[in-house]
Structure formats: structure tokens, C-alpha cells
Amino acid sequence: MIEGWRWFGPLDGITLPEVAQTGAGAVVTALHEIPSGEVWSVEAIQARKALIAEAGLGLEWLVVESLPVHDDIKRGDGDLKPLFANYRQSLSNLAECGINVICYNFMPVLDWTRTTLDAPVRGGGTALRFDAARMAAFELHMVGREASADSYPDDVVIRATSWFEGSSEADRAKLLSSIMAGLPGAYDRYSVVELKDALAAYDGIGRAELRENYYRFLQEVIPAASDLGVRMCVHPDDPPRDLLGLPRIVSTSEDVAWVMQAVPERANGLTLCSGSLGAHPQNDVPTIASMNSERIHFAHLRNVSKEADGSFQEAAHLEGDTDMPALVGVLLDEERRRISEGISDARIVWRPDHGHELGSDIGRGTHPGYPLNGRMRGLAEIRGVITGLRALEPA
Ligand code: DNO
Fold first, then answer.
1. Does position 171 have pLDDT exceeding 60, yes or no?
2. Of 235, 280, 297, 356, which residue is the catalytic one?
3. 370 catalytic, yes or no?
4. Are 66 and 103 in contact (CB under 8 A)?
5. What pLDDT, on a 0 to 100 scale, did the predictor assign at position 223?
6. Which of 235, 248, 251, 276 to mutate to test the pocket of ligand 1 (most atoms within 8 A of CB)?
7. Is the pTM of this model over 0.70?
8. How far is 275 from 21, CA to CA, in rounded Å?
9. Is residue 167 part of a domain?
10. 392 C-alpha to center of ligand 1: Å?
């Protein structure tokens, strides 16, 4: 397994020397400044590669996270030929620059979603949290989707209403900005009014329609990826549930099986994100990993603690509900299989996903979920698990 680190580019508050200090060698990044749907040119990719290499720290850009899928493709809206052509061109340009692992997602409108970015942890650090009652308050009372009361248990709806009634303007503004924090462009944010417009654009798109649009995307893109030797890996939905009436179709073991079977080629792969999948009460993450191991090309390792009402909080990487040593064991076994069968690109890049803000992280203003110390703790702990399991491997 290859240790990776997500770096948001020159605007990241964490410097490349700090990335090197974590011990990770593979940089996971994207050209976040290029609007979704436009081509990533060879020049732009080379310039970012050079920036990383010229730091002289032995870091190399190995994984793209993400090459975004334009919302028109997700909605199946209009003449999509130019968007598919641009996507394939970006893949071809990335392959020309030697970058072959591409993470993307098919979540409509919102990427990862949390209601609280600063839930306290022991000793004064903070964690990301998804609180079902806060999400319901946002959905029912701030966005005004009364019909969505059905998608929450009654007691959650009652708590949502009481939170909303007792909330100040500032509390609501904070909730909105927490929910928006996951938007990938780092610069896109919606107001409630803009969000309502984005949701309205999905009217009439349910699970079946979204699957159909996703199927079309896979058919347009995977053959080209295969020819280029590029491995695409879809990121599961986070959280793995419908939100704001938007369907989410990469949430469960069955969903992952559907994606893998839709186009049964190695180039149609999975980002094994243990935190996203692990937030669904029915998902057993090591089992999902072993069922799909041949198609895992990238891994995000982190943990969550789930609560009965659908809330969850990000736990330390070796705490929480997912058995991390069991999961790492599945990935190591798969790598051994690939190596023994002489498969190239056998090694899986993994990165510590999210982390608590700890010590000097607090107040530093790094991307939510992506502080230095908290992720370095996760990286070091999981590095220990990998080292320990490797030491036990038969010679
Ligand atoms: C959150 C990330 C996601 C991920 C995208 C991939 O921390 O794991 O935002 O980058 O969903 O497309």
C-alpha cells in the first residue's frame, strides 16, 4: 500500500514540506480552479506536477481527487456530447502526464455533508459530525421541504423543530455554512435560495433516472479509460443516504455491486471510502472491500461512530465502528494476489481521510476535515497497523 496525502494545491494552508514531514509520498490532488466540465490541459497538469516535484521532497502526484462530473451529466440534461468529450480529453491528458488513478463521485448537488464541523472531542480537539435532527431542521424548516418529514423518524422531526424554534440567526447561518463546507470546488457555496434552485433542477429525477444517467456516463467514459490504462474509482455517497430529496445511488453494498456490474471492467473501479460506507447501518466495510477487492484502486481510511437515530460522528481512525485492521488486511491480501499474478499497478494508494483538529490545528483555518495533526495521527496509526500485519505475513 502506498501512503497518500490529500493536498488542495497552492491554496491549501498546509505546505508541501509539511506533507513530506508526515512521511506520505503520494500526493492526491486536483486542479480545483478549473470549472467542472472544462478540459484539464496537459500544460496545466504538467505545471501542477512540476510544482510538487520541484519542491524536491520526493513527493509525486499519483491520484486525482476529483475529476468532477458536471451536474448536467448527472441530470442527463441537454446535449452532453461535448461534456463527455471533454471528460475523455482530460483523462487522456492525465494519462499522458502519467497520472492513472482518477477518483470522482456521482452525488447530485452536494458532495460530503456534515451539520457540525467542530463537535468537541477529548482534550479540546474537534470532529466533524452529522446530526440527524440538525439535518432535518435544515431540510424541513430552512429549505422548507415539508414532505421530507417522512424520511426521518418521528422523534428526529420533533427534535428538529425544537432546535429550529430555539435557534438564532447565527445558529442557522452556521448550520448552512457547515452543510455547504463539503462542496468540492472549495469556492462554490449556495445560499438557501440558490440551493432551492439547484434542487428544483432535479425535480423528476429519482433513483432510476439517476442510475440511467450514471450508466450512460460509465458507457461513455470507461472504454476510453480502459484504452488509456486509466483506472476510474467512484467515491461512495457521504453520508450514504438520500438528502434533501436528492437520490443517492452509491451508498450500499447493493449499489456498489450495481456500479461494478454496469460495466464489468477493471477501469470501472471503486474508491474504498471506509468512513462513507461505514456510516450506513447495514454496510459491513471489510465485507464490501473483499467482495469488490479486484476493483479497488484507491482507499480513504477513516472511522465513524454511528448513533441509533442516523447521526454519526467521525471517530479516531482506529476507533469507531469499522474494524480497521480487518479492512487493511483485505487490502493487503488483494495486493499480494495482484503481485503474485504479475498484475501491474498492484499497489493501492490510500490516504488518511479526514482527521480531528488537534493541538495547533485549531484556528489554523485548513479545509474542514483536512487538518495536519489529526490526519497525521490517523496516518501514523494506520501505518502501524499495516506494518504489523505485514510483519505477520508468511515469507
Ligand atoms: C471528502 C471527500 C470527498 C471526495 C469526493 C470525490 O472528504 O472524500 O469530497 O473527494 O466525493 O469525488
1. yes
2. 235
3. yes
4. yes
5. 98
6. 235
7. yes
8. 25
9. no
10. 33
How many distinct structural domains can be found in the chain? 1
Write down the pLDDT at residue 184.
Answer: 59
- What is the tens place of the pLDDT at every residue in 77-122? 999 999 999 999 999 999 999 999 999 999 999 999 999 999 999 9
What b/e sequence results for 42-66 when a residue is b if at least 16 CB atoms lie within 10 Å of its CB, and e otherwise? eebbeebbeebeeeeeebebbbbbb
| 141 lies in some domain | no
Distance 57 CA to ligand 1 centre (A): 26
Q: How much distance in Å is there from the Cα of 24 to the middle of ligand 1?
A: 19
> Would 179 be classed as within a structural domain?
no
Q: Average pLDDT, stretch 201-216?
A: 96
Query: What residues make up the domain containing 265?
Result: 2-113+199-391
CATH label of the domain that carries residue 215: 3.20.20.150
Tell me how far apart the alpha carbons of residues 180 and 176 are, in angstroms, rounded to a whole number.
6
235 has catalytic annotation: yes
Report helix angle 81-96 to 207-228, nearest 10: 40
